[in-house]
């Protein structure tokens, strides 16, 4: 087993040396997702998905003036739907948006939206100005076609 | 329970250094090249610089120094470079690559003196640098003593452990990337699920739920205990390979787990993503990869990038 593990690791190192031609690379591609599969002893298939992300994810924070009521999760979702309705009408409001996480204390959330609706959601959030007749603003902190990417943000790395 | 050997590998993930206000010309001096670049793998990346607005630099382990600079700096520097491939019609960013290990790059050569003059006198560039050095032999000076005149700080990666209980996990088959209904999940579903777990997203929603309709991909099994370890810092590939080897050895003895994963996030503001492939920020700058290692030591390597990045190798 130990030997097998070593062999495996040797294979692993070789992976990084394999290069493949890039057929017709297009700089407008919004995402690339590559999967290498290694089933010992023969190298397995490689699967490349371009522009195939079904969803986009946004990490957002709601800014509200101090004091006053903070929305709970359901009210937060309602606010997002209201923002969509204000800018894009009933059709916009019907855009499926999921509130994956919401933290009431920091008013931050992770939203999931169909990739084709990203611009609609983003614009609606940006242009929303009021929550219950109080000024408010959405800050889009991070956006990605990969939910995993939102779990680490090197721009937030603080070393002191 | 984690095996002790794995724990010690994690604890020994190595330290890195933060050097404040380090002039870039210090990295191209013969003294530095001989002491570090040629004697091991030397890594450097500018800290708190944004690739889409600031000047950025990185030193790769193959001895190449990459400067990604705006148009004004490029013209002032007067070093040969090429336009960034993501700058569009009006080029506002240039990439300069200097091979420090090139045979023609020595104190007597014109090129060496030109580079040193440009970085020291023509347009002095200064950054906060993250530095790491890996060499197999123990001799020689250390980065800490070499940069003792500068403001240098040794840092340890931040390590957090957590145990997740009663976690819904997708069922995977190593030889089936696309998944089959009722049998196994696809690689994309796994990737999304991993993100959900790391972001603490609830996995059991109903399709009629108002808040969120995300649920764990089908088919899935409930795992009583899952172990999650996060290491944050400037981590070099050699250490990741060590960690990966230890993770493979984890399956050396029969285990209940079917698979395990190792995810590595790249710095969003690094001038390169894979090897010397140019990297840009666009909307998020994410570049990450993930290993899924199965019990029979088959593995998947998933690599993800977004716009302003080339297809990974």
Automatic annotation (TrEMBL), chain A:
GO CC, alphabetical: multimeric ribonuclease P complex; nucleolus
Keyword tRNA processing: yes
Superkingdom of the source species: Eukaryota
SUPFAM superfamilies per record: Rnp2-like
Pfam family for this entry, one: RNase_P_Rpp14
Claim: tRNA processing is one of the keywords in the record: yes
A GO molecular function held by the record: ribonuclease P RNA binding
Entry keywords, A to Z: tRNA processing
One GO BP annotation of this record: tRNA 5'-leader removal
Protein family membership: Belongs to the eukaryotic/archaeal RNase P protein component 2 family.
This protein's name: Ribonuclease P/MRP subunit p14
Taxonomic placement: Eukaryota, Metazoa, Chordata, Craniata, Vertebrata
TrEMBL record, chain B:
Top-level taxonomic group: Eukaryota
PANTHER family on file: RIBONUCLEASE P PROTEIN SUBUNIT P40 (PTHR15396)
One GO cellular component term noted in the UniProt record for this chain: ribonuclease MRP complex
Gene Ontology MF annotations: ribonuclease MRP activity; ribonuclease P activity
BP GO terms, sorted: endonucleolytic cleavage in ITS1 to separate SSU-rRNA from 5.8S rRNA and LSU-rRNA from tricistronic rRNA transcript (SSU-rRNA, 5.8S rRNA, LSU-rRNA); tRNA 5'-leader removal
Coiled coil residues, start to end: none
Protein name per its UniProtKB record: Ribonuclease P/MRP subunit p40
Lineage, top ranks: Eukaryota, Metazoa, Chordata, Craniata, Vertebrata
